[in-house]
Amino acid sequence: MPTSPSTIRCKRGAGLGSVVVPGRGETELFTLSQSLRDEGTGTRLPSEHWLERYHQVRNQTMDLVATLTPEDQMVQSMPDASPTKWHLAHTTWFFETFVLAPHVTGYLPYDERYGFLFNSYYKRLGPHPSRTTRGTFSRPTLDEVWSYRTHVDNIIRDLLDQGASPEVFRLLELGLNHEQQHQELIITDIKHAFWVNPVRPSYQPGQSGTPVDVEPASMPLLAWFCFDGGLHHIGHDGSGFAFDNELPRHTVFIEPFCIASRLVTNQEYLAFIADGGYRRPELWLSDAWDHVCRNGWAAPLYWEQAGYGWTQFTCQGTVPLRPAEPVCHISFYEADAFARWAGMRLPTEFEWEIAASSLKNTGAAGLNLLESRTYHPRAGSRQTGLQQVFGDAWEWTSSPYTAYPGYRPPAGAEGEYNGKFMCNQMVLRGGSCATPRSHIRKSYRNFFPPHARWQFSGVRLAHDGTVE
User: In what order do the strands lie in the sheet with 317-320?
Assistant: First the structure.
């Protein structure tokens, strides 16, 4: 690979430009993945590897929208969600803005209007539309958004074919992880849109219910795993890509604690409902009770009572509620109330990471993640080990989303990626059935407002001390 600035030709709709890749140093916060370095020498792998990775992620996004019509991809069912078409354009805007524009001499934007339309919240890059109006963008058309993606993909390919600096690779990997986050949002947003639709269409037409029903007699066992108190290292260990909010790695003191071997099941949550859980203010935080009363909450999102039983809406349509599956689509408020009802509590994010670090095999093989294509949590097994740590459902913790000691946001617009949201959010850990396999890790910190329910979010219990 060339070590000096290289020049390549790139095509745009009108005119040609030259790409010059300047040498820029890496920052300390968004770390360059070790997986994209040669394990033997530590040197950068050939650009073919980066290109393969880029196309894998971008093609996976297009696979996720293959069953959706242009009309489907226009829908915005609530302010927190975004249309599929917007996700496709915004992730492309990210590569154009953060990778191509700073590193392509004379680069001309594909369409200057897109810099406004598809900027999500980066104030330093200029104004942007209100999030609530994204569903009104009938133009550009879906075909035009696809052309935009193709244009950016082609220039990224040319850039990598000629070799690029570590800074370009770093930004490219940031963009790929950003797109993977939006892959999960594509699924959760279209699921909500289809649920709001009275026709209740299926995101996965032609597929019947996901896992086989598990009778209550075969419910996964519940055990407790206890950990000694003391000092523990928390945060990303430097072995791969990390977002800035996973850094810096630091030491925390933890009291002895125990954590459940699996996620809370639908059957266990039904017992909470039957015991008047949604009618007992003593179980709820003050703001949580206000949400219950204001919104009429009486069950998790997508649950509906049908006669003497319950159904739930899934990506494969409406199916009977399966007792052994993890309860899903609950808010932090509901998870906290359930834990209080059960005489337990939610784990802190530090306790969760300590427990996850105890697993001997943290590989993604066999886990229920995006590549499983079920897009629905699976029931746990009857094994006695710690399970469902990665995949199935994001796990609410009791930890507010705040900065780690010594955290400093990256300079420039990158600093707006995570840091400015460190207020009024709660941390979730572990990934879900819609999280890409190569995206999740034990230090990953997801975050949402405590009332959010449309993500694949569940609960794992914890308690103080040790088992007597």
Answer: 303-306, 309-314, 317-320
Confidence category of residue 214, pLDDT binned at 50, 70, 90: very low
Q: Scan for tokens 């093609």, then name that residue.
A: 59
- State the DSSP string of 3-50: SS--EEEEE-SS-EEEEE-------SSSBPPGGGB-TTT-PBPPHHHH
Q: What is the pLDDT of residues 70-105, one digit of tens each?
A: 999 999 999 999 999 999 999 999 999 999 999 987
Distances (CA, A) of 408 to 240, 345, 360, 419, 420: 19, 31, 32, 8, 11
How far is residue 377 CA from its own chain's centroid?
Answer: 15
Q: ∠ CA(368), CA(370), CA(372), 5° rounding?
A: 55
Domain ranges of the chain: 7-196, 216-464
SS3 call for 386: coil
DSSP-based helix, strand, coil % in the chain, nearest 5: 35, 15, 50
The tens digit of pLDDT for each residue in 354-402 reads 999 999 865 556 899 999 999 999 999 888 789 999 999 999 999 999 9
Cβ neighbours of 385 (radius 10 Å): 12
3-state SS, residue 304: strand
Rounded Cα distance between 86 and 412, Å, is 24
The C-alpha torsion from 225 through 437 and 368 to 76, rounded to 10°, is 120
User: Please, what's the b/e burial string for 414-445 (b: 16 or more CB within 10 A of its CB; e: otherwise)?
Assistant: bbbbbbeeeeebbbbbbbbbbbbbbbbbbbbb
State yes or no: pLDDT of 34 exceeds 50: no
Q: Are the CB atoms for 45 and 36 separated by under 8 Å?
A: yes
Q: Please list, in sequence order, all residues whose beta carbon lies within 8 angstroms of the beta carbon of residue 26, skipping any fewer than 6 positions away.
A: 32, 166, 167, 170
- 216-464: CATH architecture: Alpha-Beta Complex (3.90)
* Measured CA distances, 450 to 287, 403, 462 (Å): 10, 18, 19
Of residues 58 and 240, the one with the higher pLDDT is: 58
Question: What is the CA 45 to chain-centroid distance, rounded?
Answer: 27
**Ramachandran quadrant class, 430 (left: phi over 0; alpha: psi -120 to 50; beta: rest):** left
User: What's the CA gap between 255 and 212, in Å, rounded?
Assistant: 40
Which residue is associated with the tokens 């199935």? 392
Place of tokens 């037409």: 205
Q: Write the CATH number of the domain with boundaries 7-196.
A: 1.20.120.450
